[in-house]
Amino acid sequence: MNIRISHSLAIFVLLFFTLSAIAQTGSGERYQRVVIRNAIVIDGNGTPASGPKDIVIENDRIAEIVNIDPVAVKEGRARRPAKGDFEIDAEGKYVMPGLINLHGHTHDGRGGKSMPVEYCQKLWLAHGITTIRDVGSYSKTLEWRDKSANNEIASPRIVAYGVFNNGESTKNVEAARERVRQLKREGYEGMKLFGVDRDIMAALMDEAKKQGLRVAHHTGVEETNTWDDIRFGTSSIEHWYGIPEAAIPNGRQNYPADYNYNDEVDRFRYAGRLWREADWDRLMKVFDAMIEADVAWNPTLNIYEASRDLQRAQNQPHYAEYLHPVLAEFFIPNPANHGSYFIGWTSTDEVFWKENYRIWMKALREFEKRGGTIGAGEDAGFIYQVYGFGLIRELELHQEAGFHPLMVIKHATGNNAKIMGKEDELGRIRVGFKADILVVNGNPLEDLKVLYATGTEEIVDGEARKTGGVEWTVKDGIPFHAPTMAAEVRKIVADAKAQ
């Protein structure tokens, strides 16, 4: 027993000094001048990687990008930027723009039980996510947004979209307009819209334009569909329901007579049969009209993946160390929790959903091929998706859909910035842009798994070795040590399990 105590104490001391050393690296500190050296850079605009380069950050902006000639360096005649207050050596690593999560939810609880908000915020930073478009924002979100902007908490930048739908908003046209004005007064930068009747949507969208608010539309089975998004000028369609629905010849999916939309087992079961009912030629007309109206598409492929392979979703390796017990309980099939609908889920349901994904992915390829803008978001905190892990899985699914990794990264950086109307300052490694930059241990163009907080494994001298992972997440010019963020999340989870 004494030996075990001594051994545990030694481990604790080693861990303490390791974390202390990490803390001394300046993680989370604001520096006037940061220099990242020897970087191979993925720009975020879809062009190939290039380098090595030195990147100079002054305060919160990229001030200079210098191409490095290795021969000139060896001969001692290379022009290199002056030393920074904080330096990151990116030799052998890849540098890319910070990831933007276009469909995030900042949660401090699930299913009526509390959960520390640091859990999701630090997981996002550990995965290189520097901006969250929070599409379920409320007053607490605005507080977290301001604290993040002031570097009072370790969190990505939060772009807060308030929810339009409440008890008053859909009563009549004037109530709809007043709700939009209220969201603007309260300080939201955009709004999330669920399904509404057509006259309400016409009024709220008109008012949103007057107030300068962008709109993310979660289209459901309602009176409105994608043709209304096109007509009224929605910024982005979230998920996908209204898109194939707009291309069904009879105007409505062929639901069984006993279908109940409020029963989530029914809702998600028959959602898995929707894409097969869309007429392809009609769908192309929908796409062309979306593109003409500049309506973007944020598919959130990851959030429905459990529907096509439930066993995989329930047994993901990162759950062991990163799944908070409150979130784990929320995932258990339970009609009281949104998205916890896997009651009586069958192999037949999975087969329909697998076909659904094949058609959906083909549609996504065609949409971009024709000139459409595709974004990337995770919607984690629901349906077996954990914050951060969900967005990286989203990128993998974009690659499965047939997109080149350069375009996959563009979806989550440059495209997402454009969809938020922030393409002049976010989403690229470019002089004058916000200094949102990742330093990655590995090449994400070769393997997107290197972006996971759990990293990957490679064979070295005949043995498996853990590698990969984001090393530094620089947000607003502030470097956060991603492994430290991940370690702090593991402790949050371990403490919650112990309690």
Could you explain the architecture of this structure?
The longest helix is centred in the C-terminal third of the chain and has 23 residues, at 347-369. The chain has 17 helices and 19 strands. The protein folds into 2 domains: 1-30; 98-419, TIM Barrel (Alpha-Beta Barrel), CATH 3.20.20. Residues 1-24 have low confidence and may be disordered. It is globular and about 75 Å long. The chain is 38% helix and 20% strand. It is α/β, with parallel strands linked by helices. The strands form 4 sheets. Strands 1, 2, 3, 4, 5, 15, 18 and 19 form an 8-stranded mixed sheet that branches.
Q: What can be said about this structure in brief?
A:
With 499 residues, the chain is α/β, with parallel strands linked by helices. The chain is 38% helix and 20% strand.
Topology:
Elements: H1 2-23, E1 33-41, E2 50-58, E3 61-67, H2 70-75, E4 86-89, E5 94-97, E6 99-104, E7 109-110, E8 113-114, H3 118-126, E9 129-137, H4 139-149, E10 157-163, H5 173-185, E11 190-193, H6 198-211, E12 214-218, H7 226-232, E13 236-238, H8 242-245, H9 264-271, H10 280-292, E14 296-298, H11 310-314, H12 319-322, H13 325-331, H14 347-369, H15 389-400, H16 405-419, E15 437-440, E16 456-460, E17 463-467, E18 470-475, E19 478-481, H17 482-498
Parallel strand pairs: 1-4, 1-5, 6-9, 9-10, 10-11, 11-12, 12-13, 13-14
Antiparallel strand pairs: 1-2, 2-3, 5-15, 7-8, 15-18, 16-17, 18-19
Helix pairs in contact: 3-17, 5-6, 15-16
